[in-house]
Design brief:
It is built from seven helices and ten strands. It has about 250 residues and is an alpha/beta fold. Strands 1, 2, 3, 4, 5, 6, 7, 8, 9 and 10 form a ten-stranded mixed beta sheet that branches. β9 and β10 form a beta hairpin. α3 crosses α4. It is globular and about 55 Å long. About 40% of the residues are buried. The mean pLDDT is about 90.
């Protein structure tokens, strides 16, 4: 059965259902509850543990890349290699802001810094580190935030049995904050998703078009907090819709 349960004409409600096989998240601060979602867990601490990487490769990774790769690696350990989606609204915002500042000063750009700032850099580094030959997609979801990554996962699951979704973001440079509400901290959330019917808990989503509510500044972080606290249902407003979700334990 496909993850998209109900197709619809534009403007209608959309419903999705997945089997959640495993998850792993990272944030600097410990969780406030011991009751997290099953089949996974939270990594915490000032720096994500990347002991599986040679030290020279670890040094190339930004704090955001370390959070994303550490979470993705734990899912790979549990479920093996598979096609993946790397999702971030703003990506390596600190890197590209530094480069724009350098350009404004008339300074030369660092080729290394440029290569690590593009939106598919973290997914590419992860694939290289894992020697993975599986396809990956780098996505910036815009108005639907992290849920755009889940919609993309539903599409991929029409062709493959499992998908790894890795969502991550970090606080924007201060200069952007007068124009946009964005993440306030660095975080990452990786989830192994399959079509409903597979073993694991069932994650259901319902998207209702709605522009009347103020959007959450960071819907992905809100979903991570739900996973850390064992919250089994909730809703998040994005720029164009209200997303309601429910986790039914397997």
């Amino acid at each position: 059965m496909a993850a998209l349960l109900q197709s619809a004409t534009p403007g209608d409600t959309l419903r999705f259902k997945f089997a959640l096989l495993h998850w792993c998240g990272w944030q600097a601060n410990p969780a406030t509850s011991d009751d997290c979602w099953p089949e996974g867990g939270l990594l915490t601490g000032e720096h994500p543990d990347l002991e599986f990487l040679p030290i020279m490769q670890r040094r190339r990774l930004s704090p955001l890349a370390r959070a994303a790769c550490a979470s993705a690696w734990r899912c790979r350990q549990a479920c093996g290699d598979m096609p993946s989606i790397f999702f971030s609204r703003h990506g390596e915002s600190r890197y590209y802001f530094e480069m724009l500042t350098d350009l404004a000063r008339g300074e030369a750009l660092s080729p290394s810094r440029f290569s690590l700032s593009v939106h598919n850099a973290i997914g590419g580094l992860y694939g290289l580190q894992c020697a993975s030959r599986q396809p990956y997609l780098a996505l910036a979801g815009g108005g639907d935030d992290v849920f755009a990554g889940l919609v993309e996962a539903a599409g991929l699951l029409l062709e493959v049995p499992r998908v790894l979704l890795v969502a991550y973001d970090q606080a924007l440079p201060e200069v952007y904050l007068t124009h946009i509400h964005g993440p306030e901290q660095t975080w990452a959330l990786a989830m192994v998703l399959a079509n409903p019917g597979a073993s694991g808990s069932a994650l259901e989503l319902c998207r209702t078009p709605d522009r009347s509510r103020p959007p959450s500044p960071d819907a992905g972080y809100a979903l991570l907090q739900a996973a850390c606290s064992g919250q089994l249902n909730g809703s998040v407003a994005t720029r164009r819709a209200l997303w309601q979700w429910r986790l039914t334990l397997g």
